[in-house]
């Protein structure tokens, strides 16, 4: 996967690409990242990338000429590229979108700043707009990192375990099961016995129940409209019976 990031602050990405799964994916050739400084495509001695908005108002707007030059430089190197503008006005980025992007060959991520970018760039050179949430950041760089990270971990060979990405939260409309590691007892709280049993069938059942219960307690909205399996219905009925007993005991 080819990632090309367009930004006026390229140094922000030095540390991002130097650590963890992202770095390993680079070394293995799973991803090929590139960072283009938009200022390199700005005309004039001062390489200005922003100017006052027409019509007045606060703040500055990113100029179209440098952005157009940077985008065309990126797409010229990789014609089969999807250009994405990171903006609060875009479609909210989620796991489904990450899977969709992971199936593409190359992505150009445009990091806006200030009050935004000139609308003519959005109309002519941007394929889609994405937002990482209903809040405003000072620039698109952090959003670009989020997209790169989420997409990279879905690419074959990026993670250590072949099923790691498949069992993440939101890989299906449900949260992941609880996780434990050493020590077996921490501050008087022990790891569930079933995880130490070596019985993989029972462990799988426990994990399915853990995932379902965590989703019910933390993100019940994810279960709306979900076609429950027989095993999931049995878990919910069991918990329903437990809750009924607690309610009955509390009202006695």
Question: Could you please describe the fold and organization of this structure?
Answer:
It is built from seven helices and nine strands. The protein has helices at residues 20-27, 64-77, 95-102, 119-124, 141-152, 200-218, 230-251, and strands spanning 2-7, 32-37, 50-51, 61-62, 82-92, 106-111, 128-131, 185-186, 189-190. The mean pLDDT is 92. It has two domains: 2-152, SPOUT methyltransferase, trefoil knot domain (Alpha/beta knot, 3-Layer(aba) Sandwich); 185-251, tRNA(m1g37)methyltransferase, domain 2 (Trp Operon Repressor, Chain A), CATH 1.10.1270. The relative contact order is 0.12. The radius of gyration is 24 Å and the shape is elongated. Helix content is 35%, strand content 16%. It has a five-stranded parallel sheet with strand order 2-1-6-5-7, with helices on both faces. A two-stranded antiparallel ribbon has the order 3-4. A two-stranded antiparallel sheet has the order 8-9. Helix 3 packs across helix 5. The chain is α/β, with parallel strands linked by helices. Strand 5 (82-92), helix 3 and strand 6 form a beta-alpha-beta unit.
